[in-house]
Specification:
By secondary structure, this protein is an all-alpha fold. Helices cover about 70% and strands about 0% of the residues. The longest helix has about 30 residues, at about 200-230.
Length: about 270
């Protein structure tokens, strides 16, 4: 099981990818996602291009010396969503080619599988995989606070970066609260899969835990807001900047990655 602390621990490793400026890695991830989304959906050559981009991202994962087990588990945790969306496409996409070699396969209840639907679903699944890989690579090689600062530096709306910074702080707070609740329940021999107690009682205990987290989050939110007001929040000077500067290796990485994407698009 991948936990929040494991994900953040990966970002503290030291590798050429980790040492890149967070703004460069954020721009790279956005560029990969925009390129993947801009490709035509039904085109056989684009599948090869997408797989080539995925291979390049996996090379960056190896260069970053990330734990492959955690990396794969994080992708597998999100991949079922993309698989579920892709599986229904063959039944939804109508056939628009008159002289096709693959005839629609008629099924009961008025359903049919078309070649266009299979091609569209396959392309959609590979696009989903490449986008998820780029996002996981970004989050695994960049600290959360540096990612928020990088988004602020490259011109993201102030409200957006402020919400992200608050989310980063509260994620680890809620995770620690959840761990304490879990430990307290384990010391009292609470087991969600215990068959000796009724399911109604177990659901009630889970509801108590969730309501406790909501109450603690509200109380912590009030304390945090008052502390922010005492420290000058609202004066217009709340922006937090990443103090690092873009170096030659960052520019080289951007140019090299752009060259790889151009090569993949025009020569593969």
């Amino acid at each position: 099981m991948v936990t929040l602390t494991d994900i953040e621990r990966e970002s503290y490793k030291n590798s050429p990818i980790h040492r890149l400026d967070p703004r460069v890695k954020l721009l790279f991830a956005l560029a990969v996602i925009l390129y993947v989304v801009s490709l035509p959906r039904i085109h056989e050559e684009n599948i090869t291009r997408l797989l080539a981009v995925e291979a390049y991202l996996l090379l960056l994962v190896l260069a970053a010396r990330l734990d492959l087990r955690y990396f794969i588990l994080r992708i597998l945790a999100i991949l079922p969503l993309g698989i579920g969306i892709a599986l229904i496409q063959p039944f939804l996409k109508p056939s628009f080619v008159e002289n096709y070699t693959f005839y629609p396969l008629d099924l009961p209840l008025g359903l049919s599988i078309t070649y266009e639907g299979i091609a569209f679903g396959s392309s959609l699944l590979v696009k989903f995989l490449v986008c998820v890989t780029s996002v996981v690579l970004l989050s695994s090689t960049t600290k959360l606070r540096d990612m928020v600062s990088a988004a602020d530096r490259i011109g993201f709306p102030r409200e957006f970066t402020l919400l992200l910074s608050m989310m980063v702080r509260y994620l680890f707070l809620f995770w620690s609260v959840l761990k304490r609740i879990k430990i307290a329940q384990q010391t009292r021999l609470f087991n969600i899969w215990n068959k000796n107690v009724t399911r109604k009682w177990i659901v009630k205990q889970i509801g108590y835990s969730i309501s406790s987290i909501f109450v603690r989050s509200y109380e912590q939110g009030e304390k945090t807001y008052i502390s922010m007001l005492c420290r000058g929040y609202g004066s217009g000077y709340e922006k937090a900047y990443y103090k690092g500067k873009i170096k030659a290796q960052d520019i080289f990485f951007l140019l090299f990655s752009a060259g790889c994407i151009v090569y993949i698009h025009y020569f593969i």
